[in-house]
C-alpha cells in the first residue's frame, strides 16, 4: 500500500510517523524549501503526548518541553485563581510548552529514524481521486498514483480547494497578536499567566516555552503594549498580528483523500487545542487506513472537531465578552475551579483533553 502525506507541519509529521510505525510505505512532501523556524503553536496536551508514546516521540518531547504545572488568572492584575498541580494528581498530566519548530524537529528526527525523510521543496500541483486510488502531480513535473493521501496542508489547503470541499465558517473582524520573547529576572517557566483587564475584557497571556522564553498572546493588535504585568524582556524574537477564522470542512474525505489538521478545521487559539486536534486527526487517519476503517474517519473526526470548536468558542466568548453577566459567570467559574476539588478536577480533564 502506497500512501502520500501532504504537508510537514505537526499534523503531517504525526501522520507519517503513525504510518511508518505500522510499516506502511509512506512519502511526505512539503512545498516549503526547508523546515520552518517559527514557533507558531506552542502548547502540547497530555493526551497528545500519550498518543505519541507508541510512535517514539513522547520521551524527546518530555525532555525538552516546559511542564506547565501552574496557572495564575488575574483581573486587572489582581489574582482571581491560582492553581498549582505540582503536588497533586495532575502533576504528570499538565500541558507542555514548546515552540512548534522544535515539536516539528523532534517528530522529523523520529520519522527519519524510521527511514522516512521529508521531501522539501516539492508541492502538489494537481490531485484527483477515484474509488481505488489518488493520482497526484508534483511541481517537479512527475506524477504518481497512491492508495491513500492524507492532506495536512493547512488552512489554505490547496488539496481541499482542488477537491472543492466546502470550508464554511466566519472570519472575526478584530485582530489578536503574539510576541515571542526572552526573559530574565523573576520568571517561573512552569506558570501560565492570564490577565483580564479593561471594560472590554481584553486579555494578555504569558505561556513559557523554554526556561527563559515565553509566548505572549493578546486580544489586542500589539501583544507587547498590552502587557500590564512586570516582565524583564531581554529580547523580542518575533511579533505578529492575526485574524481568527472559525471554519470546518463539510467532509474530511473525498474518495481516497483524507483531510487532517487545519485543512479540515480552524478556530481561535483559546485553550491551545488547534495543533493537538490536528495531531489527533493524523493518528486517526493513519489508523483508519491501516485497519480498514476509513469509512468512519470523516464522521468521527468531524464530530470531534465540531466539539472542540464549540468548546473553544464558548471559552473565547467567556474570556473576551464585555457583557456583565458573562463577566460574572467567568468570575464564578474561576472561583469554583480554585475552591471546589471536584470542579478543579473536571476543569483539568476538560482542558487537557483533545
UniProtKB/TrEMBL annotation:
The keyword RNA-binding does not apply. Residues 2-212, 234-311 form the FAD-binding domain. One of its GO terms (molecular function) is monooxygenase activity. It comes from the Bacteria. InterPro entries: FAD-bd, FAD/NAD-bd_sf, RIFMO-like. Pfam families: FAD_binding_3. Its cofactor is FAD. Keywords: FAD, Flavoprotein, Monooxygenase, Oxidoreductase. This is FAD-dependent monooxygenase.
Amino acid at each position: 500500500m502506497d500512501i502520500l502525506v501532504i504537508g510537514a507541519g505537526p499534523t503531517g509529521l504525526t501522520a507519517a510517523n503513525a504510518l511508518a510505525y505500522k510499516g506502511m510505505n509512506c512519502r511526505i512532501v512539503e512545498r516549503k524549501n526547508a523546515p520552518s523556524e517559527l514557533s507558531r503553536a506552542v502548547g502540547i496536551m497530555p493526551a497528545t503526548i500519550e498518543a505519541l508514546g507508541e510512535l517514539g516521540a513522547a520521551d524527546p518531547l518530555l525532555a525538552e518541553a516546559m511542564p506547565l504545572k501552574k496557572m495564575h488568572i488575574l483581573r486587572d492584575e489582581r489574582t482571581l485563581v491560582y492553581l498549582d498541580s505540582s503536588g497533586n494528581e495532575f502533576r504528570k498530566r499538565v500541558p507542555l510548552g514548546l515552540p512548534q519548530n522544535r515539536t516539528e524537529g523532534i517528530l522529523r528526527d523520529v520519522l527519519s529514524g524510521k527511514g522516512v525523510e521529508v521531501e522539501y521543496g516539492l508541492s502538489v500541483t494537481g490531485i484527483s481521486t477515484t474509488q481505488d486510488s489518488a493520482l497526484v502531480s508534483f511541481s517537479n513535473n512527475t506524477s504518481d498514483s497512491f492508495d491513500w493521501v492524507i492532506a495536512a496542508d493547512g488552512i489554505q489547503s490547496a488539496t481541499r480547494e482542488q477537491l472543492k470541499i466546502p470550508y464554511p465558517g466566519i472570519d472575526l473582524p478584530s485582530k489578536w497578536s503574539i510576541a515571542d520573547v526572552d526573559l530574565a529576572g523573576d520568571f517561573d517557566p512552569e506558570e501560565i499567566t492570564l490577565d483580564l483587564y479593561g471594560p472590554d475584557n481584553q486579555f494578555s497571556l504569558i505561556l513559557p516555552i523554554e526556561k527563559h522564553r515565553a509566548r505572549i498572546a493578546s486580544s489586542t493588535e500589539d501583544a507587547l503594549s498590552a502587557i500590564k504585568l512586570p516582565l524583564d524582556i531581554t529580547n523580542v524574537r518575533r511579533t505578529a498580528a492575526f485574524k481568527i477564522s472559525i471554519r470546518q470542512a463539510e467532509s474530511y474525505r473525498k474518495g481516497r483523500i483524507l483531510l487532517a489538521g487545519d485543512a479540515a478545521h480552524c478556530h481561535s487559539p483559546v485553550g491551545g487545542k488547534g495543533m493537538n486536534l490536528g495531531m489527533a486527526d493524523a493518528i486517526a487517519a493513519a489508523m483508519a487506513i491501516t485497519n480498514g476503517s476509513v469509512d468512519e474517519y470523516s464522521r468521527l473526526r468531524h464530530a470531534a472537531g465540531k466539539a472542540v470548536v464549540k468548546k473553544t468558542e464558548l471559552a473565547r466568548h467567556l474570556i473576551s465578552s464585555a457583557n456583565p453577566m458573562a463577566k460574572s459567570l467567568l468570575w464564578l467559574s474561576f472561583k469554583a475551579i480554585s475552591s471546589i476539588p471536584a470542579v478543579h478536577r473536571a476543569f483539568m480533564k476538560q482542558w487537557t483533553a483533545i
